[in-house]
Amino acid sequence: MLLEIENLTMQFGGLVAVNNVSLNIQEGEIHALIGPNGSGKTTIFNVVSGYYKPTGGVVRFRGKQISGLPAYRITALGLARTFQNLRLFRSMTVMENVLVSLGHHAKTRFWQHVLDPFSVRREEERLKEKALETLRVMRIEQYADEQATSLPYGLQRRVEIARALATEPTLVLLDEPAAGLNETETAELRDILLQIRASGITVFLVEHDMKLVMEISDVVSVLDYGKKIAEGSCSAVSCDPVVIEAYLGKEGE
Amino acid sequence: MTKTVILIQTIVGGLGIGSIYALVALGYSMVYRSMGLVNFAHGSIYMIGTYFGIIFYRGMVAGIHLPYWAAFIVGVLLTAILGVLLERLFRPLANLDLMLMLLGTIGVGIMLDNLAIIVWGAEGFAVRSPLPSKPILVGGVSLLPQMLLVIGVGTLLMVGLQTFLSRTKVGKAMRAAAQDREIASAMGIPVNFTNAITFAIGSGLASAAGILAAPIVYVNPSMSAAVGIKGFASAILGGLGSIPGAIVGGLSFGVIEAISAGFISSAYTKGIAFIIMVLVLMVKPSGIVGETTVEKV
Amino acid sequence: MKTRSTLWKTLALVAFLALLLAMPKIARNDYQVRILNMTGLYILISLGLNIAMGYCGQINLAMGAFWAVGAYTAALLNTNFKWPFWLTLPAAMVISAIIGVVVGLPSLKVRSHYLAIVTIGLGEVINIILVNEEKITRGAMGIPGIKRPSLFGFTFNSEQKYYYLVLVAVILGYLIARQITRHRFGRAFRAIRDDYVAAKAMGVNTGFYQILAIVISGVYAGVAGVLFAHLNTYISPDIFEFRSTLFVLTMTMVGGMGNLLGSLVGGILVILQEALRTFKDWQLVFYGVAVVLVVLFFPGGVMGIAQRWRERQATRLASAAEKEEAGNPPSGEVR
Asked: pTM for the complete prediction?
């Protein structure tokens, strides 16, 4: 089991955002997490990636407990994430954005940056080559030197994913990667996600675009009011009366 | 017995100086709350406010000698007017990010400080207290009359401010505007007007603090930095943006200073107060009274 | 086209270096050279502040205190133990770095205006210690008799000679700052400044880099302090007041935060301030007004103006090229 979420509870004051949720993610799958707005999906992401300390339960990644670790350590262990509302580094080019993620793979030490410009330059070339590979996977290598935040929205989404992939994760958490994309862009995103899975990276996905979820997911978990109400293959979940009610009930309001 | 007497005496002295810090801290917090502006020129407003009152008390303007209470009122009113004018100058700064705000308000402070030097000279003067300088003895504790005046008037002003904010129509509008600027202006509250009033009150309080403190301290243009920094430290210690926080922060800062001066080391007074402030912030970054907010990811 | 512009750049750089080398000869008296030397020291501090604030977004208002720490370390080691400049310099760097960790630690917990007051407070504490530990620092009396540095029998015993020492220090300081900020350390710093949360998510050990940035800024100020102590041969606590920190802050912001060249340009402000002396008391009033005007109208400082100009130039070129490609006649549709 790659990621084990066990009896996870997250409480903010009196508000229970996530209520005793258990969830397992197997290596090599695309696992989608769906549910109406405010059902606690992003909160689960925030706990798993280390932004909140859970008020109850544990999270284990490759058998090691990670709940309570600082976010950057979790990333270094091989668990990366993207943000729903893009959080690109605004002063940086696309290339630099991706290079930040490669920082903890760099071999140069601080004293070398002060005294040894030659090995720093060599290392920089190596990192840039690596970054370029990631940009190619996301099909944005031609924008490498553009200011990241000046790109169209759809491309910024891809930079966001590229940045997460550059940390060289085994599991990547994608928070609504299709939000705000048009149909062509979504189709391209689908191909990219499948390609990511094919390269051996497990994907944990929060997404509202049901068509996309149904097309690519191996397993779907459904949250409602902070509780897990269903889990299974796409076809099983989409027929589940509890799930239908949760969604229709919301729409009927 | 004597130890408790000294302790009480020290605490009263601390509360006196603390009232000054609290009044200055209120200016920082009120302006921050309503405009989102951290005003590093507030120390200079305090200094100018002191001069605005004391120059009439000492007959430095066309030989007009006002009694202390009248000079106090004139000074506070003049400084409040200055505050309204300054609000216009600060308005564009309030929307900038912190570093620019820091620099911009510091720039205004440098301007005010040096104008004061040009008008009133760089060297200062001591101010005679309107009250007798002989300490009053209360149960063995000797208290300076001016210090009691500072505490008394300071308390009156703080209670008055609280009443004004919670009871009057303008005060309520100010609180609403501070809570949410957009909603307030949608509800028809003139936000620029409430900001101007906020600035006027903040500046007036600083002036009051300065005129009250003048007979205890030495008055000169460079006094803006020390009180400015300590007032800001007090506001932060209590929780920036909180009215009770400013009061609690100011009084604690004063008492800590007095106790460390009296019992630990007079040389390190200021240092100990700052270290305690740093420690409090490390434990509770939002200050003593401030609310902790959950960061949205 | 490209080679020509690099040629021009090289020529300009060579001319500029020649000008810098000739400065002591151009200056009319020792006093003017002294101002140049002080400008160099301020540039060093500004480079440090730029790394901490401009790149990493960590407000460090204890810069004056770091300068004092550097100067006092040098003065005490030199006068008491006869350590030469070449030993007091690394010693002061180590001590500034250690104090940098102490001043930097709160940055793990507090940010923005809270960090501002915390660093102001810690800086004050350091200054208070220097004033009050009279047995060691001689308090307000200061420390006289600090020796000028010498190298292979050559003593930097005049303002003119010292100028070249300062010049080398500034050039080295700039080049090192460039090496730090251009590569992964600089990117980590900027990531923290741009988006603290996202930086963490990308594996940046934010706490480590925040403290590192403050340590670097402290070491730069410390080095400037050492240079000052050996230049002035006498130091006392009153030259390290909070005002000096504010001055470095203004010169960095006027030059341009987040751009090392901004610190160099900001150095001109030191000279300008001297030039304004003729206005006596009005000097500082003008200075205050100028600061406010810069903040309101040129928030990026001089480098910001230069950048905007270059961008405008670039878009003009790009749109011209586009038009050429499309074969359209020039029209007013381009901004």
From this structure: 0.86
